[in-house]
Design brief:
Helices cover about 40% and strands about 25% of the residues. The strands form 2 sheets. The protein has an 8-stranded mixed sheet, with helices on both faces. Strands 1-2 form a two-stranded antiparallel sheet. The longest helix has 26 residues.
Length: about 325
């Protein structure tokens, strides 16, 4: 196809969703015939839609031979972009269709491990109590509030200082050393000799074990040595499988400590540098959905604190 690279895209002249769907399907199958079967259209209709799209873009998206088609470099780039566009359209349409006119959507983000191990249990029953507030929970490593993210509320770890954000402290972080009960058998209980132990490491907190022992005025070598894991969730899973001892926030391993699946290797909890907060834009703090979830979390914290007192885990 002859192209004129100087020809601009006409103002507000955008491809139709049908054309984008035809292109995406053909690009995924690398076949107009298979795309036609999936789209319930004729092969000529698929080919025509793609040709019109190429004409509008003034670019060739496919190399065509008598027996096959393949994506051009421009086609490969465009395919990835179109795939994301179609996904956004699908999500937006599904969200709109799944919510009635009198419901609210509460968009929540959280660190992955905290979300799975604390936030989801904390929100259990919320949807039944507030059926007109639909929860949309996303796990992210960050950033949590940015121009391209429509977020109502986030659960973060830090110092509580985030610009233009209201931050309500949930609890301080205390980390405990936990392992499988059998892992401690035939091992020296002293913290001064670590030769018998494997210390599981968190990639983002490589000095955590050093600080844990330093708080106890214990000087040991080898605190930076051991298998590294990206998340607390992976580190906890490794401890459950007997890989070694994990140093993780107490609140995130309460179920395993209660059940006996994990035990504390040493009777000490190290205070972390930060705390856990629920944060939200100052301007949205008075909305009905925000008040509802904040009251729910506050009530859950009260129950959780009472449970910890009964178990003797409060620090």
């Amino acid at each position: 196809m002859k192209t004129d690279t100087n020809k601009p895209l006409a103002f507000r002249r955008y491809p139709s969703t049908t054309a984008l769907q035809c292109f995406e399907t053909a690009a995924r199958h690398l076949s107009f015939t298979n795309a036609a079967h999936e789209m319930h259209m004729t092969q000529s209709a698929i080919s025509k839609q793609v040709a019109q799209l190429e004409e509008m873009l003034n670019l060739s998206l496919f190399y065509r031979t008598p027996h096959r088609i393949s994506l051009t470099p421009a086609g490969k780039t465009y395919y990835l972009e179109v795939l994301e566009i179609l996904k956004h359209i699908e999500v937006a349409t599904t969200n709109l269709m799944s919510h009635s006119s009198n419901t609210e959507l509460l968009k929540i983000v959280s660190h992955p491990t905290f979300c799975a191990r604390w936030l989801i249990p904390a929100l259990s029953g919320f949807s039944q109590e507030y059926p007109l507030i639909n929860l949309d929970i996303k796990e992210l490593a960050g950033p949590f509030f940015s121009e391209d993210q429509n977020v109502d509320i986030a659960f973060l770890y830090g110092d509580g200082m985030w610009g233009n954000m209201e931050a309500v402290k949930l609890f301080d972080e205390y980390c405990v050393a936990v392992c499988q009960p059998q892992y401690l058998q035939d091992k020296t209980p002293s913290t001064e000799c670590l030769n018998d132990y494997v210390l599981l490491q968190i990639s983002s907190r490589l000095s955590a074990w050093y600080e844990y022992f330093k708080q106890q005025d214990v000087s040991v070598d080898g605190t930076f040595v051991g298998p590294r894991f990206e998340t607390f969730h992976a580190c906890i899973s490794a401890a459950l499988l007997g890989y070694g001892i994990a140093l993780v926030p107490l609140r995130l391993v309460e179920p395993e400590l209660q059940s006996g699946a994990l035990v504390m290797a040493w009777d000490y909890a190290a205070k972390g540098r930060g705390s856990y907060y629920v944060t939200y834009p100052v301007s949205s703090g008075q909305s009905h959905k925000m008040k509802a979830v904040l009251e729910w979390i506050t009530a859950y914290l009260a129950i959780s604190d009472e449970r910890e007192k009964a178990l003797g885990l409060v620090l």
